[in-house]
Amino acid sequence: MSQPTGPASQGHIHKQPVPPPEAMDVTLTINGSRKTLRVAPWTSLLDALRLHLDMTGTKKGCDHGQCGACTVLVDGRRINSCLTLAVMAEGRTVTTIEGLASGDALHPLQEAFVEHDAFQCGYCTPGQICSAVGMLEEGHARTDDDIRELMSGNLCRCGAYPNIVAAIRQVMDAQKDGGTP
Known about the structure:
With 181 residues, the protein is an alpha+beta fold. The protein folds into two domains: 24-99, Ubiquitin-like (UB roll); 108-176, DNA polymerase, domain 1. It has five helices and five strands, in the order E-E-H-E-E-E-H-H-H-H. A five-stranded mixed β-sheet has the order 2-1-5-3-4, with helices on both faces. Strand 1 (24-30) and strand 2 form a beta hairpin. Helix 2 packs across helix 5. The termini are far apart. The model has no long low-confidence stretch (mean pLDDT 93).
């Protein structure tokens, strides 16, 4: 039996770094439509939506998870899409602001935001609405203070907070009274 020779036999193993893949396929369902994207593994879900799918309703605000402008729903839960890698959404269901309306009928929260003038510049509005949809689904909000606390991850630089709370309250009360979400 022969003895091993070379660097490995002397305890010197030279490992070659394995380069990350340049791109990966990720399949997800976005607003009811199954999509397969080829993205770099470090691509955020936000950038995949905006740059690969041309879905610009979801906004890039801080790109650090601090403003909530990029909020979308993944499997019904609100997340900051700027902090979520697209590959982490593999096989998941993503709902963006574009997917909330049903045909020509706005989602009740979209209608309430219009009715209560719950926006000024409108940049934060898609994230505010998606976050509010997720918050109402969670079912923890009971009071206006609860709404403010549970929506605190979504910033509005224009200061439309009182109208945002009023819009959410309207939909929350309608749900409580047996109305549609």
